[in-house]
Amino acid sequence: MPENYTSNEIMTIAAARALRNNDVCFVGIGMPSAASNLARLTHAPDITLIYESGTIATRPDVLPLSIGDGELCETALTTTPVVEMFRYWLQAGRMTVGFLGGAQIDRFANLNTTVVGSYDKPKVRLPGGGGAPEIASACGEIFIIMAQSKRAFADKLDFVTSMGHGEGGDHRARLGLKTKGPTKLITDLCVFEPNPVTKEMIVSSIHPGVTRDQIAASTGWTVRFAANIAETPPPGSRELQVLRELHARTARAHGG
Amino acid sequence: MSRFLSLAEAVEETIRDGDSVAMEGFTHLIPSAAGHEIIRQRKRNLTLIKMTPDIIYDQLIGMGCASRLVFSWGGNPGVGSLHRLRDAVENGWPCPLAIEEHSHAAMANAYEAGAAGLPCAIFRGYIGVDLPKVNPRIKQVTCPFTGEVLAAVPAHRPDVAVIHALKADRAGNVLLEGIVGVQKEAVLAAKRSIVTVEEIVEDFGTRSFNAVILPNWTIGAIVAVPGGAYPSYAQGYYKRDNAFYIAWDMIARERESFLAWMKSNVLDKGPEVFAEERRRLSLAAAGE
After folding, report:
1. Which domains does chain A have, with CATH numbers?
2. Measured distance CA(A27)–CA(A50) in Å, rounded
3. How far is A123 from chain B (nearest CA, A)?
4. pLDDT in tens, A22-70
5. How far off is chain B from A227, nearest CA to CA, in Å?
6. How much is the pTM?
7. Three-state DSSP class for B223?
8. Which homologous superfamily is B3-102+157-286 in?
9. Record: contact B149-A176, CB cut-off 8 A
Protein backbone atom coordinates (compact mmCIF):
# COMPACT_ATOMS: atom_id res chain seq x y z
CA MET A 1 0.00 0.00 0.00
CA PRO A 2 -0.74 2.40 -1.41
CA GLU A 3 -1.70 0.25 -4.36
CA ASN A 4 -1.94 1.75 -7.79
CA TYR A 5 -5.34 3.29 -8.24
CA THR A 6 -6.65 6.47 -9.81
CA SER A 7 -8.35 9.37 -8.05
CA ASN A 8 -11.45 8.50 -10.05
CA GLU A 9 -11.38 4.95 -8.69
CA ILE A 10 -11.10 5.95 -5.05
CA MET A 11 -13.90 8.46 -5.56
CA THR A 12 -16.21 5.79 -6.98
CA ILE A 13 -15.23 3.28 -4.30
CA ALA A 14 -15.66 5.75 -1.42
CA ALA A 15 -19.07 6.65 -2.86
CA ALA A 16 -20.09 3.00 -3.17
CA ARG A 17 -19.19 2.37 0.47
CA ALA A 18 -21.68 5.02 1.58
CA LEU A 19 -24.57 2.84 0.36
CA ARG A 20 -26.12 0.21 2.61
CA ASN A 21 -27.50 -3.21 1.76
CA ASN A 22 -31.07 -2.20 2.70
CA ASP A 23 -31.08 1.10 0.79
CA VAL A 24 -33.61 1.94 -1.89
CA CYS A 25 -31.53 4.17 -4.10
CA PHE A 26 -32.66 6.53 -6.89
CA VAL A 27 -29.65 6.45 -9.20
CA GLY A 28 -28.42 9.28 -11.42
CA ILE A 29 -26.60 8.44 -14.63
CA GLY A 30 -22.79 8.53 -14.91
CA MET A 31 -20.66 8.34 -11.77
CA PRO A 32 -23.61 7.75 -9.40
CA SER A 33 -24.55 4.74 -11.51
CA ALA A 34 -21.01 3.34 -11.38
CA ALA A 35 -20.84 3.78 -7.59
CA SER A 36 -24.30 2.29 -7.00
CA ASN A 37 -23.60 -0.78 -9.09
CA LEU A 38 -20.21 -1.24 -7.47
CA ALA A 39 -21.99 -1.28 -4.09
CA ARG A 40 -24.43 -3.88 -5.42
CA LEU A 41 -21.60 -6.04 -6.75
CA THR A 42 -19.60 -5.86 -3.48
CA HIS A 43 -20.98 -5.19 0.01
CA ALA A 44 -24.64 -4.44 -0.77
CA PRO A 45 -25.98 -7.30 -2.93
CA ASP A 46 -29.60 -6.71 -1.88
CA ILE A 47 -29.68 -2.96 -2.52
CA THR A 48 -32.64 -1.77 -4.60
CA LEU A 49 -31.44 0.41 -7.48
CA ILE A 50 -34.05 2.51 -9.25
CA TYR A 51 -33.55 4.60 -12.40
CA GLU A 52 -35.93 7.33 -13.47
CA SER A 53 -36.80 5.45 -16.67
CA GLY A 54 -39.02 3.37 -14.39
CA THR A 55 -36.79 0.36 -13.74
CA ILE A 56 -37.07 -0.94 -10.18
CA ALA A 57 -34.49 -3.27 -8.55
CA THR A 58 -32.40 -3.41 -11.68
CA ARG A 59 -29.18 -5.44 -11.82
CA PRO A 60 -27.34 -4.41 -14.99
CA ASP A 61 -24.31 -6.47 -15.98
CA VAL A 62 -22.79 -3.44 -17.73
CA LEU A 63 -23.24 0.22 -16.85
CA PRO A 64 -25.95 1.88 -18.93
CA LEU A 65 -24.82 4.78 -21.13
CA SER A 66 -28.25 6.35 -20.89
CA ILE A 67 -30.79 6.35 -18.10
CA GLY A 68 -33.00 4.03 -20.15
CA ASP A 69 -30.76 1.42 -21.79
CA GLY A 70 -32.50 -1.92 -22.48
CA GLU A 71 -30.08 -3.56 -20.03
CA LEU A 72 -31.84 -1.76 -17.16
CA CYS A 73 -35.28 -2.99 -18.17
CA GLU A 74 -34.18 -6.56 -18.92
CA THR A 75 -32.55 -7.01 -15.50
CA ALA A 76 -35.18 -5.15 -13.45
CA LEU A 77 -37.75 -6.70 -11.15
CA THR A 78 -40.34 -4.51 -12.84
CA THR A 79 -40.56 -1.41 -15.03
CA THR A 80 -43.15 1.28 -14.38
CA PRO A 81 -44.37 4.12 -16.61
CA VAL A 82 -42.35 7.29 -16.04
CA VAL A 83 -45.33 9.17 -14.57
CA GLU A 84 -45.79 6.44 -11.99
CA MET A 85 -42.06 6.49 -11.16
CA PHE A 86 -42.16 10.17 -10.32
CA ARG A 87 -45.55 10.14 -8.56
CA TYR A 88 -45.92 6.85 -6.67
CA TRP A 89 -42.29 5.99 -6.06
CA LEU A 90 -40.24 9.19 -5.80
CA GLN A 91 -42.78 11.80 -4.68
CA ALA A 92 -44.34 9.45 -2.13
CA GLY A 93 -41.00 9.21 -0.34
CA ARG A 94 -40.14 5.56 -0.93
CA MET A 95 -36.43 6.16 -1.66
CA THR A 96 -34.00 6.10 1.26
CA VAL A 97 -31.27 7.76 -0.77
CA GLY A 98 -30.85 9.66 -4.02
CA PHE A 99 -27.45 9.58 -5.71
CA LEU A 100 -26.63 12.64 -7.83
CA GLY A 101 -23.80 14.25 -9.75
CA GLY A 102 -23.66 17.81 -11.03
CA ALA A 103 -21.74 20.39 -12.96
CA GLN A 104 -21.43 22.94 -10.14
CA ILE A 105 -21.91 22.76 -6.39
CA ASP A 106 -21.71 25.32 -3.59
CA ARG A 107 -20.79 25.05 0.10
CA PHE A 108 -24.35 24.10 1.03
CA ALA A 109 -24.41 21.36 -1.62
CA ASN A 110 -26.90 23.12 -3.87
CA LEU A 111 -26.36 21.91 -7.45
CA ASN A 112 -26.32 23.67 -10.79
CA THR A 113 -26.77 21.66 -13.98
CA THR A 114 -28.69 24.35 -15.88
CA VAL A 115 -26.57 27.31 -17.07
CA VAL A 116 -23.24 29.04 -16.64
CA GLY A 117 -23.85 32.78 -16.91
CA SER A 118 -27.31 34.31 -17.01
CA TYR A 119 -30.35 32.16 -17.74
CA ASP A 120 -31.56 34.27 -20.66
CA LYS A 121 -28.12 34.75 -22.27
CA PRO A 122 -26.14 31.75 -21.03
CA LYS A 123 -22.42 31.41 -21.59
CA VAL A 124 -22.85 27.67 -21.43
CA ARG A 125 -26.20 25.95 -21.69
CA LEU A 126 -26.00 22.75 -19.61
CA PRO A 127 -28.53 19.89 -20.00
CA GLY A 128 -30.83 21.02 -17.18
CA GLY A 129 -32.28 19.40 -14.11
CA GLY A 130 -34.06 16.30 -15.39
CA GLY A 131 -35.22 14.41 -12.33
CA ALA A 132 -32.81 16.10 -9.92
CA PRO A 133 -34.99 18.91 -8.45
CA GLU A 134 -37.50 16.42 -7.03
CA ILE A 135 -34.92 13.70 -6.28
CA ALA A 136 -33.12 16.26 -4.09
CA SER A 137 -36.25 17.03 -2.08
CA ALA A 138 -38.04 13.65 -1.95
CA CYS A 139 -35.32 11.10 -1.14
CA GLY A 140 -34.54 10.39 2.52
CA GLU A 141 -31.01 11.70 2.04
CA ILE A 142 -28.75 12.65 -0.83
CA PHE A 143 -25.26 11.51 -1.73
CA ILE A 144 -23.37 13.53 -4.33
CA ILE A 145 -20.34 12.41 -6.30
CA MET A 146 -18.27 15.01 -8.19
CA ALA A 147 -14.64 15.53 -9.14
CA GLN A 148 -13.26 18.66 -7.50
CA SER A 149 -12.11 21.82 -9.26
CA LYS A 150 -12.36 25.50 -8.45
CA ARG A 151 -14.84 25.97 -11.26
CA ALA A 152 -17.08 23.08 -10.23
CA PHE A 153 -16.92 23.84 -6.49
CA ALA A 154 -18.14 27.41 -6.80
CA ASP A 155 -18.43 30.16 -4.24
CA LYS A 156 -21.72 31.16 -5.82
CA LEU A 157 -23.92 29.25 -8.25
CA ASP A 158 -25.30 30.95 -11.34
CA PHE A 159 -28.45 28.86 -10.99
CA VAL A 160 -29.86 26.55 -8.31
CA THR A 161 -31.12 23.51 -10.24
CA SER A 162 -31.65 21.33 -7.19
CA MET A 163 -31.65 22.31 -3.56
CA GLY A 164 -29.08 21.04 -1.12
CA HIS A 165 -29.17 22.92 2.16
CA GLY A 166 -30.22 26.17 0.46
CA GLU A 167 -28.85 29.09 2.47
CA GLY A 168 -27.79 26.70 5.23
CA GLY A 169 -29.08 26.22 8.77
CA ASP A 170 -32.74 25.22 8.90
CA HIS A 171 -33.56 26.41 5.37
CA ARG A 172 -34.88 23.00 4.25
CA ALA A 173 -37.12 22.70 7.31
CA ARG A 174 -38.43 26.23 6.73
CA LEU A 175 -39.55 25.16 3.27
CA GLY A 176 -41.42 22.22 4.79
CA LEU A 177 -38.93 19.53 3.79
CA LYS A 178 -38.65 16.61 6.18
CA THR A 179 -35.87 14.85 4.28
CA LYS A 180 -32.22 15.29 5.24
CA GLY A 181 -30.78 16.66 2.01
CA PRO A 182 -27.10 16.09 1.13
CA THR A 183 -25.39 14.06 3.85
CA LYS A 184 -22.28 13.07 1.89
CA LEU A 185 -20.34 14.70 -0.92
CA ILE A 186 -17.71 12.34 -2.26
CA THR A 187 -14.94 13.80 -4.45
CA ASP A 188 -11.70 12.61 -6.00
CA LEU A 189 -9.84 14.18 -3.05
CA CYS A 190 -11.99 13.73 0.04
CA VAL A 191 -15.44 13.30 1.57
CA PHE A 192 -17.52 16.25 2.80
CA GLU A 193 -20.37 16.05 5.33
CA PRO A 194 -22.64 18.86 6.50
CA ASN A 195 -21.97 20.67 9.76
CA PRO A 196 -24.97 19.65 11.92
CA VAL A 197 -25.95 23.27 12.63
CA THR A 198 -24.78 25.49 9.76
CA LYS A 199 -25.17 22.71 7.14
CA GLU A 200 -22.03 23.91 5.38
CA MET A 201 -20.27 20.96 3.78
CA ILE A 202 -16.98 20.36 5.63
CA VAL A 203 -14.24 17.84 4.94
CA SER A 204 -14.68 14.78 7.12
CA SER A 205 -12.29 12.34 5.46
CA ILE A 206 -9.27 12.84 3.21
CA HIS A 207 -8.20 10.27 0.62
CA PRO A 208 -4.70 8.77 1.15
CA GLY A 209 -1.87 10.98 -0.08
CA VAL A 210 -4.06 14.06 -0.56
CA THR A 211 -3.11 17.25 1.31
CA ARG A 212 -5.34 19.93 2.81
CA ASP A 213 -3.69 22.47 0.51
CA GLN A 214 -4.69 20.44 -2.52
CA ILE A 215 -8.31 20.37 -1.34
CA ALA A 216 -8.30 24.10 -0.60
CA ALA A 217 -6.80 24.84 -4.02
CA SER A 218 -9.58 22.87 -5.71
CA THR A 219 -12.46 24.49 -3.84
CA GLY A 220 -14.00 27.83 -4.79
CA TRP A 221 -14.98 28.69 -1.21
CA THR A 222 -12.84 28.75 1.96
CA VAL A 223 -12.99 25.11 2.83
CA ARG A 224 -13.32 23.95 6.43
CA PHE A 225 -12.10 20.70 7.91
CA ALA A 226 -13.74 18.65 10.67
CA ALA A 227 -12.00 18.54 14.04
CA ASN A 228 -11.63 14.77 13.94
CA ILE A 229 -10.65 14.23 10.38
CA ALA A 230 -10.28 10.69 9.10
CA GLU A 231 -8.23 9.19 6.31
CA THR A 232 -10.36 7.42 3.72
CA PRO A 233 -9.41 3.73 3.75
CA PRO A 234 -7.64 2.95 0.46
CA PRO A 235 -9.46 0.83 -2.11
CA GLY A 236 -9.44 -2.86 -1.32
CA SER A 237 -8.18 -5.23 -3.99
CA ARG A 238 -11.64 -6.76 -4.48
CA GLU A 239 -13.28 -3.33 -4.78
CA LEU A 240 -10.74 -2.35 -7.41
CA GLN A 241 -11.08 -5.61 -9.29
CA VAL A 242 -14.89 -5.49 -9.41
CA LEU A 243 -14.89 -1.83 -10.49
CA ARG A 244 -12.32 -2.40 -13.24
CA GLU A 245 -14.15 -5.46 -14.55
CA LEU A 246 -17.39 -3.48 -14.58
CA HIS A 247 -15.79 -0.67 -16.59
CA ALA A 248 -14.13 -3.14 -18.98
CA ARG A 249 -17.44 -4.97 -19.63
CA THR A 250 -19.13 -1.62 -20.16
CA ALA A 251 -16.52 -0.38 -22.64
CA ARG A 252 -16.83 -3.61 -24.65
CA ALA A 253 -20.62 -3.40 -24.67
CA HIS A 254 -20.81 0.23 -25.80
CA GLY A 255 -18.21 -0.22 -28.51
CA GLY A 256 -17.33 3.47 -28.33
CA MET B 1 -59.85 5.57 -36.06
CA SER B 2 -56.28 4.75 -37.00
CA ARG B 3 -55.26 4.56 -40.64
CA PHE B 4 -52.24 2.90 -42.21
CA LEU B 5 -50.27 5.47 -44.21
CA SER B 6 -46.81 5.96 -45.62
CA LEU B 7 -44.47 8.00 -43.46
CA ALA B 8 -44.52 10.92 -45.90
CA GLU B 9 -48.34 10.93 -46.02
CA ALA B 10 -48.67 10.65 -42.24
CA VAL B 11 -46.39 13.63 -41.58
CA GLU B 12 -47.90 15.69 -44.37
CA GLU B 13 -51.48 15.12 -43.22
CA THR B 14 -50.88 15.38 -39.49
CA ILE B 15 -48.28 18.09 -38.82
CA ARG B 16 -48.69 21.72 -39.84
CA ASP B 17 -46.24 24.60 -39.52
CA GLY B 18 -46.62 26.20 -36.10
CA ASP B 19 -47.97 23.04 -34.39
CA SER B 20 -46.94 21.90 -30.95
CA VAL B 21 -45.49 18.42 -31.38
CA ALA B 22 -44.54 15.94 -28.65
CA MET B 23 -42.22 13.22 -29.97
CA GLU B 24 -41.87 11.10 -26.89
CA GLY B 25 -39.81 8.08 -25.93
CA PHE B 26 -37.73 7.93 -22.76
CA THR B 27 -34.42 6.77 -24.29
CA HIS B 28 -36.30 3.69 -25.55
CA LEU B 29 -38.49 3.85 -28.70
CA ILE B 30 -37.54 7.36 -29.83
CA PRO B 31 -39.39 8.14 -33.09
CA SER B 32 -36.26 8.97 -35.10
CA ALA B 33 -37.59 8.07 -38.55
CA ALA B 34 -40.59 10.36 -38.09
CA GLY B 35 -38.22 13.15 -37.05
CA HIS B 36 -36.26 12.73 -40.28
CA GLU B 37 -39.45 12.94 -42.33
CA ILE B 38 -40.44 16.18 -40.56
CA ILE B 39 -37.01 17.56 -41.50
CA ARG B 40 -37.39 16.41 -45.14
CA GLN B 41 -40.77 18.12 -45.37
CA ARG B 42 -39.19 21.32 -43.98
CA LYS B 43 -41.82 21.92 -41.32
CA ARG B 44 -41.27 25.26 -39.62
CA ASN B 45 -42.01 27.14 -36.42
CA LEU B 46 -42.84 24.01 -34.40
CA THR B 47 -43.09 23.96 -30.62
CA LEU B 48 -41.27 20.77 -29.73
CA ILE B 49 -42.19 19.09 -26.44
CA LYS B 50 -40.14 16.27 -24.93
CA MET B 51 -38.77 15.30 -21.52
CA THR B 52 -35.40 14.29 -22.98
CA PRO B 53 -34.80 16.04 -26.33
CA ASP B 54 -32.14 13.50 -27.45
CA ILE B 55 -30.45 13.42 -30.88
CA ILE B 56 -33.77 13.65 -32.74
CA TYR B 57 -34.51 17.14 -31.39
CA ASP B 58 -30.88 18.16 -31.89
CA GLN B 59 -31.47 17.37 -35.58
CA LEU B 60 -34.85 19.12 -35.82
CA ILE B 61 -33.51 22.22 -34.06
CA GLY B 62 -30.31 22.30 -36.13
CA MET B 63 -32.34 22.08 -39.34
CA GLY B 64 -34.48 25.04 -38.34
CA CYS B 65 -37.81 23.26 -37.74
CA ALA B 66 -38.41 24.57 -34.22
CA SER B 67 -38.98 27.99 -32.70
CA ARG B 68 -39.78 26.80 -29.19
CA LEU B 69 -38.70 23.88 -26.99
CA VAL B 70 -40.50 22.58 -23.89
CA PHE B 71 -38.23 20.12 -22.08
CA SER B 72 -36.68 18.90 -18.84
CA TRP B 73 -33.27 17.44 -19.74
CA GLY B 74 -31.50 18.46 -22.92
CA GLY B 75 -28.34 16.40 -23.23
CA ASN B 76 -26.87 13.46 -25.08
CA PRO B 77 -27.32 10.85 -22.33
CA GLY B 78 -24.01 9.64 -20.94
CA VAL B 79 -22.08 11.60 -23.58
CA GLY B 80 -22.52 15.33 -23.00
CA SER B 81 -24.16 18.25 -24.74
CA LEU B 82 -26.62 18.40 -27.58
CA HIS B 83 -24.52 20.84 -29.61
CA ARG B 84 -27.25 21.96 -32.01
CA LEU B 85 -29.59 22.70 -29.09
CA ARG B 86 -26.81 24.65 -27.40
CA ASP B 87 -25.97 26.59 -30.56
CA ALA B 88 -29.63 27.58 -30.93
CA VAL B 89 -29.95 28.71 -27.29
CA GLU B 90 -26.53 30.34 -27.00
CA ASN B 91 -26.21 31.85 -30.51
CA GLY B 92 -29.65 31.69 -32.13
CA TRP B 93 -28.39 29.40 -34.94
CA PRO B 94 -30.02 28.58 -37.33
CA CYS B 95 -32.91 30.50 -35.76
CA PRO B 96 -33.76 31.69 -32.25
CA LEU B 97 -35.20 29.04 -29.96
CA ALA B 98 -37.41 30.02 -27.05
CA ILE B 99 -37.31 27.55 -24.19
CA GLU B 100 -39.80 26.53 -21.55
CA GLU B 101 -37.93 24.45 -19.03
CA HIS B 102 -39.30 22.07 -16.41
CA SER B 103 -38.21 19.17 -14.24
CA HIS B 104 -38.95 15.57 -15.28
CA ALA B 105 -41.56 15.28 -12.55
CA ALA B 106 -43.37 18.36 -13.89
CA MET B 107 -43.26 17.15 -17.50
CA ALA B 108 -44.50 13.66 -16.63
CA ASN B 109 -47.28 15.11 -14.49
CA ALA B 110 -48.24 17.56 -17.26
CA TYR B 111 -48.64 14.71 -19.76
CA GLU B 112 -50.73 12.74 -17.28
CA ALA B 113 -52.96 15.77 -16.71
CA GLY B 114 -53.33 16.16 -20.48
CA ALA B 115 -54.29 12.51 -20.86
CA ALA B 116 -56.73 12.88 -17.97
CA GLY B 117 -58.42 15.88 -19.56
CA LEU B 118 -57.41 18.16 -16.69
CA PRO B 119 -56.25 21.77 -17.15
CA CYS B 120 -53.19 21.43 -14.93
CA ALA B 121 -51.01 19.04 -12.99
CA ILE B 122 -50.44 19.28 -9.25
CA PHE B 123 -47.48 17.70 -7.53
CA ARG B 124 -44.90 18.20 -4.79
CA GLY B 125 -41.92 19.76 -6.49
CA TYR B 126 -39.69 22.70 -7.39
CA ILE B 127 -38.91 23.26 -3.72
CA GLY B 128 -36.04 25.71 -3.09
CA VAL B 129 -34.91 25.88 -6.73
CA ASP B 130 -34.60 28.59 -9.38
CA LEU B 131 -36.70 27.24 -12.28
CA PRO B 132 -39.95 28.87 -11.03
CA LYS B 133 -38.11 32.24 -11.20
CA VAL B 134 -37.44 31.88 -14.94
CA ASN B 135 -40.51 29.90 -16.02
CA PRO B 136 -43.75 31.84 -15.37
CA ARG B 137 -45.82 28.73 -16.14
CA ILE B 138 -44.70 27.13 -12.89
CA LYS B 139 -47.14 28.21 -10.19
CA GLN B 140 -48.28 27.15 -6.74
CA VAL B 141 -51.61 25.97 -5.40
CA THR B 142 -52.66 25.35 -1.83
CA CYS B 143 -54.30 22.04 -0.99
CA PRO B 144 -57.85 22.90 0.17
CA PHE B 145 -57.79 20.01 2.65
CA THR B 146 -54.35 20.18 4.29
CA GLY B 147 -53.03 23.64 3.42
CA GLU B 148 -49.89 22.16 1.85
CA VAL B 149 -48.45 24.37 -0.87
CA LEU B 150 -47.89 22.33 -4.05
CA ALA B 151 -46.48 23.02 -7.49
CA ALA B 152 -48.78 23.39 -10.50
CA VAL B 153 -47.98 23.40 -14.21
CA PRO B 154 -50.36 23.52 -17.19
CA ALA B 155 -51.34 20.21 -18.74
CA HIS B 156 -49.60 19.26 -21.97
CA ARG B 157 -52.16 19.26 -24.78
CA PRO B 158 -49.97 19.01 -27.90
CA ASP B 159 -51.46 19.36 -31.35
CA VAL B 160 -49.63 16.20 -32.35
CA ALA B 161 -48.01 13.29 -30.50
CA VAL B 162 -45.48 11.18 -32.41
CA ILE B 163 -44.30 7.89 -30.92
CA HIS B 164 -42.61 4.69 -32.07
CA ALA B 165 -44.15 1.43 -30.81
CA LEU B 166 -43.27 -2.24 -31.18
CA LYS B 167 -46.28 -3.51 -33.15
CA ALA B 168 -49.61 -2.69 -34.63
CA ASP B 169 -52.22 -5.32 -35.48
CA ARG B 170 -54.31 -5.35 -38.67
CA ALA B 171 -57.12 -3.56 -36.86
CA GLY B 172 -54.79 -0.67 -36.11
CA ASN B 173 -54.27 -1.19 -32.39
CA VAL B 174 -50.75 -0.49 -31.09
CA LEU B 175 -48.61 -2.30 -28.51
CA LEU B 176 -45.51 -1.23 -26.62
CA GLU B 177 -43.57 -2.77 -23.78
CA GLY B 178 -40.31 -2.30 -21.91
CA ILE B 179 -39.44 1.22 -20.82
CA VAL B 180 -42.75 2.78 -21.81
CA GLY B 181 -41.97 6.34 -20.75
CA VAL B 182 -44.83 8.80 -21.21
CA GLN B 183 -45.91 7.68 -24.69
CA LYS B 184 -49.40 6.51 -23.76
CA GLU B 185 -50.01 9.78 -21.92
CA ALA B 186 -48.64 11.83 -24.84
CA VAL B 187 -50.94 10.15 -27.40
CA LEU B 188 -54.01 10.45 -25.17
CA ALA B 189 -53.19 14.11 -24.42
CA ALA B 190 -52.71 15.08 -28.07
CA LYS B 191 -55.29 16.17 -30.62
CA ARG B 192 -53.69 14.10 -33.40
CA SER B 193 -51.07 11.37 -33.48
CA ILE B 194 -48.62 9.42 -35.59
CA VAL B 195 -47.38 6.03 -34.45
CA THR B 196 -44.53 4.33 -36.28
CA VAL B 197 -44.09 0.62 -35.50
CA GLU B 198 -41.47 -2.07 -35.99
CA GLU B 199 -43.98 -4.39 -37.62
CA ILE B 200 -47.63 -4.95 -38.42
CA VAL B 201 -48.91 -8.34 -37.30
CA GLU B 202 -52.17 -10.17 -37.99
CA ASP B 203 -53.06 -10.01 -34.31
CA PHE B 204 -51.05 -9.60 -31.09
CA GLY B 205 -51.58 -13.20 -30.00
CA THR B 206 -50.42 -14.22 -26.53
CA ARG B 207 -49.26 -11.19 -24.60
CA SER B 208 -48.97 -9.86 -21.09
CA PHE B 209 -52.40 -8.90 -19.78
CA ASN B 210 -50.85 -5.57 -18.82
CA ALA B 211 -48.98 -4.72 -21.98
CA VAL B 212 -49.45 -1.08 -22.94
CA ILE B 213 -51.99 -1.13 -25.76
CA LEU B 214 -53.47 1.92 -27.43
CA PRO B 215 -56.82 1.05 -29.05
CA ASN B 216 -57.23 2.00 -32.72
CA TRP B 217 -59.80 4.71 -31.94
CA THR B 218 -57.21 6.66 -29.89
CA ILE B 219 -54.68 6.87 -32.73
CA GLY B 220 -54.39 8.83 -35.97
CA ALA B 221 -51.84 7.49 -38.43
CA ILE B 222 -49.90 4.23 -38.20
CA VAL B 223 -46.77 3.66 -40.27
CA ALA B 224 -44.61 0.54 -40.41
CA VAL B 225 -40.99 1.69 -40.17
CA PRO B 226 -38.72 -1.20 -39.18
CA GLY B 227 -35.80 0.21 -37.23
CA GLY B 228 -37.64 3.51 -36.89
CA ALA B 229 -36.29 4.20 -33.40
CA TYR B 230 -32.61 3.87 -34.41
CA PRO B 231 -30.14 4.89 -32.88
CA SER B 232 -32.48 4.44 -29.92
CA TYR B 233 -33.79 0.91 -29.58
CA ALA B 234 -36.86 -1.30 -29.68
CA GLN B 235 -37.00 -3.87 -26.90
CA GLY B 236 -36.76 -7.35 -28.37
CA TYR B 237 -35.87 -6.08 -31.86
CA TYR B 238 -32.53 -4.27 -31.64
CA LYS B 239 -30.33 -2.62 -29.05
CA ARG B 240 -29.49 1.03 -28.53
CA ASP B 241 -26.53 1.95 -30.73
CA ASN B 242 -24.52 3.58 -27.96
CA ALA B 243 -21.51 3.92 -30.30
CA PHE B 244 -23.59 6.18 -32.55
CA TYR B 245 -24.66 8.35 -29.61
CA ILE B 246 -20.97 8.77 -28.81
CA ALA B 247 -20.17 9.51 -32.49
CA TRP B 248 -22.99 12.08 -32.68
CA ASP B 249 -21.02 14.30 -30.32
CA MET B 250 -18.39 14.89 -33.04
CA ILE B 251 -20.88 15.03 -35.94
CA ALA B 252 -23.01 17.72 -34.29
CA ARG B 253 -20.22 19.75 -32.71
CA GLU B 254 -19.67 21.95 -35.79
CA ARG B 255 -22.37 23.39 -38.05
CA GLU B 256 -20.64 22.23 -41.25
CA SER B 257 -20.17 18.60 -40.21
CA PHE B 258 -23.74 18.53 -38.93
CA LEU B 259 -25.21 19.91 -42.18
CA ALA B 260 -23.12 17.54 -44.29
CA TRP B 261 -24.29 14.56 -42.21
CA MET B 262 -27.93 15.66 -42.44
CA LYS B 263 -27.70 16.03 -46.21
CA SER B 264 -26.25 12.61 -46.90
CA ASN B 265 -28.15 10.71 -44.19
CA VAL B 266 -31.52 12.44 -44.01
CA LEU B 267 -32.29 14.84 -46.85
CA ASP B 268 -31.00 12.54 -49.59
CA LYS B 269 -32.45 9.39 -48.02
CA GLY B 270 -35.78 7.91 -46.96
CA PRO B 271 -37.13 5.77 -44.14
CA GLU B 272 -35.58 2.64 -45.67
CA VAL B 273 -32.23 3.53 -44.02
CA PHE B 274 -33.77 2.59 -40.67
CA ALA B 275 -34.50 -0.95 -41.85
CA GLU B 276 -30.87 -1.20 -42.94
CA GLU B 277 -29.66 -0.11 -39.51
CA ARG B 278 -31.97 -2.65 -37.87
CA ARG B 279 -30.59 -5.38 -40.13
CA ARG B 280 -27.01 -4.34 -39.36
CA LEU B 281 -27.64 -4.40 -35.59
CA SER B 282 -29.39 -7.78 -35.80
CA LEU B 283 -26.48 -9.28 -37.72
CA ALA B 284 -23.99 -7.82 -35.22
CA ALA B 285 -26.04 -9.24 -32.33
CA ALA B 286 -26.20 -12.67 -33.98
CA GLY B 287 -22.42 -12.63 -34.37
CA GLU B 288 -21.82 -11.95 -30.68
Report:
1. 7-254 (3.40.1080.10)
2. 6
3. 7
4. 999 999 988 999 999 999 999 999 999 999 999 999 999 999 988 888 9
5. 30
6. 0.96
7. strand
8. Glutaconate Coenzyme A-transferase (3.40.1080.10)
9. yes
